[in-house]
Amino acid sequence: MNYNSDFYNRLNKPSFQPPKEVFKPVWTTLYILMAAAFLIVVFKKYDYSKMPAITLFFIQLILNFIWPFLFFGLGKIKAALVVCILLTAAVFFTIAAFFKISVIAAVLLIPYFLWLIFASILNAAIVKLNPDK
User: Which residue blocks in 44-76 are alpha helix, DSSP H?
Assistant: First the structure.
């Protein structure tokens, strides 16, 4: 996807906006943790049905891919905020589902969940600072 960086650069951003150099290593780390958690769940031998947990994981993953498309690609920062909140909730439920299968897998998703809380706050602040967008 070709993101509209001009659109993003023109947005008013809150004082707590991290420098852009922070996002790539953070997301790289989070994706590695997500993959590790997912693989632990997939390969864990357990009687409990893993399909709800795996389904939740894919739901949050889809929401994760929708957010940047809305925010950067279409410039729909309010819709992106809704998706970010739904994504955060989906990750919360994914953690709960993973916990029933593997505590380690659930714990690996906690940094992602915390980052999404921050991302939701950041997205909400951008919406507030840019009411015309």
Answer: 51-68
How far is residue 60's CA from residue 41's CA, in Å, rounded to a whole number? 15
Q: How far apart are CA 27 and CA 41, in angstroms?
A: 21
Q: What is the pLDDT of residues 13-26, one digit of tens each?
A: 999 999 989 999 99
Q: At which residue do the structure tokens 């593997």 appear?
A: 102
Q: How far apart are CA 78 and CA 25, in angstroms?
A: 26
Task: Pinpoint the alpha helices (H) of 1-133.
Answer: 5-10, 20-43, 51-68, 77-99, 103-108, 110-129
Domain residue limits, the chain: 50-133
Global pTM reads 0.92
- How far from 79 is each of 13, 100, 123, CA to CA, in Å? 17, 32, 10
